[in-house]
Amino acid sequence: MTMERHLLEKLLDGGDEASAAAVAALRSGTTYRVWDTTHPAEQHAGVFARRHRRMRLHRLEPLVLERAVQLLREHGRPVRGVLIHSADQK
C-alpha cells in the first residue's frame, strides 16, 4: 500500500518517545513500508508481547514496546502495520 509520508507522520504523532522517534526517522528521509492488509489489533498485540518478552530475556528494553501492546489491546479494531527502516534500528 502506498501512503504519503506526511500522512503517516500525522498518524504517528502520538506525543510519546516511540512516536517522536518514528516521526523523526520519517522526516530524515528513511524508507518505510505500509502493509496492504489489516489484522485484528489483538493479533498484533500478541506478536509484540512475545517480542517484548524475548527481548527482555536478552536484557534489552525496546523503545516503549510494552506501551504499544497496551494501546493495541485497548484499540480493539483492525490495524495496518508499517515498517520504518531507521538508521539506528530502533
What proportion strand?
15-25%
Using only C-alpha atoms, the radius of gyration works out to 13 Å
Terminal residue distance: 23 Å
What is the overall shape?
globular
Structural class: alpha+beta
Approximately how much helix is present in the residues?
A: 40-55%
Unreliable segments (pLDDT under 50, ≥5 consecutive)? none
Q: How many DSSP H or I helices?
A: 4
The description of the largest β-sheet is: 2 strands, antiparallel
Largest beta sheet: strand ordering: 1-2
Summarize the helix and strand pattern as letters: HHEHHE
Element layout with pairings:
Elements: H1 5-12, H2 17-27, E1 32-39, H3 41-57, H4 65-75, E2 79-84
Antiparallel strand pairs: 1-2
Helix pairs in contact: 1-2, 3-4
What does this structure look like?
There is one protein chain. The chain starts with a helix and ends in a 6-residue tail after the last strand. It has a two-stranded antiparallel sheet with strand order 1-2. The chain is built from four helices and two strands. Helices cover 52% and strands 16% of the residues. With 90 residues, it is of the alpha+beta class. The mean pLDDT is 87. Helix 1 runs antiparallel to helix 2 and helix 3 runs antiparallel to helix 4.
Summed up:
The protein is α+β, with helices and mostly antiparallel strands and 90 residues long. It has helices at 5-12, 17-27, 41-57, 65-75, and strands spanning 32-39, 79-84. The protein has 4 helices and 2 strands; from the N terminus they run H-H-E-H-H-E.
